């Protein structure tokens, strides 16, 4: 009788390998989720446990809830000037572009034509209004 029991369990050794492999993969995914949640300022241990014990539902909940999170930045101070960064071919360096302001030219009474649709002061010789886009009649 005891020989029958050991023979029954001998057939399942290959299944134990896949079971252990599944647990290890779940543990790795749970650790990755915990690390990611901690980077966003959330409770990493809690999210890791949720994903480990409820893999499908936990990952689904995490993906839905995480989409609304914003990344917590350690240093919120930006330097007034930073030295130019030499970019290597495989990296992308962030570029900040400040808007270029054109000098404001104040038109004189002889240089302006008023739009008949909105009353905006356009430069003399303009075919269309710079504000509303209506055609400006030519002044003789």
Give structural notes.
- The structure is a single chain.
- This protein has a two-stranded antiparallel sheet with strand order 1-2.
- Among the domains are: 65 residues, no CATH class; 30 residues, no CATH class.
- 41% of the residues lie in helices and 4% in strands.
- Helix 2 packs antiparallel against helix 3, helix 2 runs parallel beside helix 4 and helix 3 packs antiparallel against helix 4.
- The mean pLDDT is 76.
- With 140 residues, the chain is mainly alpha-helical.
- It contains 4 helices and 2 strands.
Defining key terms:
140 residues, mainly alpha, two-stranded antiparallel sheet
Topology:
Layout: H1 2-10, H2 13-39, H3 44-53, H4 55-66, E1 112-114, E2 121-123
Helix pairs in contact: 2-3, 2-4, 3-4
Q: Residue ranges: pLDDT <50 for 5 or more in a row?
A: none
Class derived from helix and strand content = mainly alpha
- In the sheet with the most strands, the strands line up as 1-2
| Count, helices | 4
Largest sheet: 2 strands, antiparallel
Rg from C-alpha positions?
Answer: 34 Å
Instruction: Specify the overall morphology.
Output: rod-shaped
In percent terms, what proportion of residues is strand? under 5%
Quick structural overview:
With 140 residues, the chain is mainly alpha-helical. It contains four helices and two strands.
